[in-house]
Amino acid sequence: MGLCALAYSGGLDTSVAIKWIKENYGYDVLAISVDVGEERDYEGIRQKALQIGAVDAVVIDAKQEFFDEHLRRAIWANLMYEHKYPAFTSLARPLLAKKQVEVALERGAECLAHGCTGKGNDQVRFETTYAALAPHMKVVAPVREWGMTRDQEIEYAQQHGIPVPVDKKSPYSIDVNLWGRSIECGLIEDPSQEVPEDAWLWTTAPEKAPDEPAYVTIGFEEGTPVSLNGERMDGPTLVARLNQLGGAHGVGRVNMMENRLVGIKSREAYEAPAATIILTAHRDLESITLDRETYHFKPYLELRYAELVYYGQWFTPLRKAIDAFMAETQKRVNGEVTVKLYKGHCEAVARKSDWSLYEYSLATYDTGDKFDQSASKGFIDIFALPAKVAARVAREHGMEP
Ligand code: ARG
């Protein structure tokens, strides 16, 4: 009997999938869970898979790799899909799929399976990664294929001895990793209404946040955050600390209309305190360390990069090429930024860098000014020349310049 490697979350869908794959495809199932910072009982999840009937179950801690290979690059690219979503789910899926493929190849599996529906982006991200890393393998998407309603699925679970959560089920569908928490379904699907307060877990309501602001200083080396208030720490720890601190001050709530790759517009709610703080600080440090032309050009590629990551095109030549550009720009992005957190608001208030391009003697209007103001005259004569000629020709034809 063949082996199928399933990306296993421990939830109802992927639990039912263990049995369903066996029944419908005859494969033994190997359950693979990947820890990208959700802080769950992974040993419990592993045991659950075995109890349901997986022939084996493995858990992989990929937090450091998630930071080093994915989040670091997201920071370099100031990654925000549609200017609002830090794309944490989009960033994690290719890594989950890659880990799954690694184990599948090691164990000689012939099939890969995931628990995504047919309406979302995640199926695309998983399968695009499979196509790049293991094109010879068969792919099964049980939730997309089985056509069961929620009630039928619960009935199937009960008939097959699969534990169904008994507690009053949350109306929301949640996805969590180091970089953020997404909340979908339930009342969130009505965009004319404010996101209900019970959807939020990581963030205090801004109006209930402390009356005193918090300040935090983030140190960057080549665009990567490496310290908080002067204390060096590894990436996952730094991100977790900022999620705590930012969340307490109500920072990082997002509510947006989002364009999915599969053509649907959806209403989304996200909590991403650390991502909000780090990107605010990072952009600010770029504003003092990057030359004007790079600083103006980079956002074009950032936009394309966000799209490409959201679309699940992680293992592609374009992603690697844009990363190479970003990495080159980040060589100068060294220094410290102090961010002020206050009632949901997050602002960079001070910055310091050995790589600063700010020159007091050029900027000041006080004594010590080294800028040669007389040189501006000739500069403007030439700079304004095209406008001057075009305006003259317009006037000759009775047109407003
Ligand atoms: N809309 C976001 C995205 O497409 C979040 C998806 C969350 N995924 C999930 N299975 N709950 O990246």
Structure write-up:
- The chain is an alpha/beta fold.
- The protein has three domains: 3-166, 3-Layer(aba) Sandwich (Rossmann fold), CATH 3.40.50.620; 176-352, Alpha-Beta Complex (Argininosuccinate synthetase, chain A, domain 2), CATH 3.90.1260; 363-396, no CATH class.
- Helix content is 43%, strand content 20%.
- It has 14 helices and 14 strands.
- The protein has helices at residues 12-25, 42-52, 63-76, 88-106, 122-133, 142-145, 150-159, 235-248, 273-289, 292-310, 317-330, 360-363, 375-383, 385-396, and strands spanning 3-7, 28-35, 56-61, 111-113, 138-140, 173-177, 180-184, 214-221, 224-228, 231-232, 253-259, 265-271, 335-342, 345-352.
- The protein has a five-stranded parallel β-sheet with strand order 3-2-1-4-5, with helices on both faces. The protein has a five-stranded antiparallel β-sheet with strand order 10-9-8-13-14. Strands 6-7-12-11 form a four-stranded antiparallel β-sheet.
- β4 (111-113), α5 (122-133) and β5 (138-140) form a beta-alpha-beta unit.
- α4 (88-106) packs across α5.
- The longest helix is centred in the N-terminal third of the chain and has 19 residues, at 88-106.
- The relative contact order is 0.12.
- It binds arginine.
- Arginine is lined by residues 89-90, 121-122, 173, 175, 182, 184, 258, 268.
